[in-house]
Amino acid sequence: MPCMHRFDEKKFWVDPKKPLRLDKRSTQPDDQLDSKADARAALAEDVTELREAQQKLYAGQRNSVLVILQGMDAAGKDGTIRHVLGGINPQGCRVYSFRAPNDAEVQHHFLCRPVPYLPARGMISVFNRSYYEEVFVVRVHPEFLQRQCIPDVDLSDPGSLRRLWKRRYEEIRHFERALTDNGTLVLKFFLHISPDEQKERMLERLTDPSKHWKFNPRDLDERRLWKDYRQAFQEGIRATSTTTAPWYIIPADRKWYARALIADILNSRIQKLRPEYPTASPEDIARFDEAIRRLNNEPRSLFE
What we know:
Strand order of the largest sheet: 2-3-1-4-5
CATH topology: Rossmann fold
Number of domains: 1
Structural class: alpha/beta
CATH class: Alpha Beta
Number of strands: 5
Largest sheet: 5 strands, parallel
CATH superfamily: P-loop containing nucleotide triphosphate hydrolases
Number of helices: 9
Shape: globular
Helix content: 40-55%
Distance between the termini: 46 Å
């Protein structure tokens, strides 16, 4: 029996026709789950259904799924991937982490970079950060554009930069519309945490030896730019959220809630694709019957 979806996903979807104020969006769980134990039970049910849906998706070779995770440092992207998608057959799922582009990548349009990692039919691709860094991080650090040598972009002119961001939003919308028109389900999740929660997670990375490897001194510098990042997220998310490639703002101060919510939305949207195992043709059935006959009548001498 399909699991009951516990969340009203419309509450978290970003409507591009309405203003987006992240400082007015809660980072805490709401009343759609009663407890942490309920969240774990809901997550387990959704992960089980996702496993079955992914197998049908892989076998059917009709649709594909692209999941994009964005958020501030320590927002919980890695843990979300591990807990929500860790049970899926790795044969049908790929995870890609997007770091700063290399010297070869900056010589191309920024949307060339994700193309090799887009999901083929039947596959799920997960982007841990993504091409959206070009309108989030690069907006906060426009000096990063110097390496890209984009014609007619003046880094000293705020108007020139505004036109660039507007153009990139439009390019992203067209890019994602092309993906959805070709059968790819595009789902984008912004893990929304508070400054206080990020501080606690950073302190944990600094005091827990098993998490020292996660700490990057630059994270403290980026934290000081919180308001700049918030503005970049607000404008970029609102400009690129559509009904066919939606953004969801995920309250992420409690990891158990964020994981259960993302799993619920992901499972619900994939189920709407109605993935099914391929139906055998009459010719296939006849071949199967012949194969059964051969197996049942093979001589034991072949194996003795």
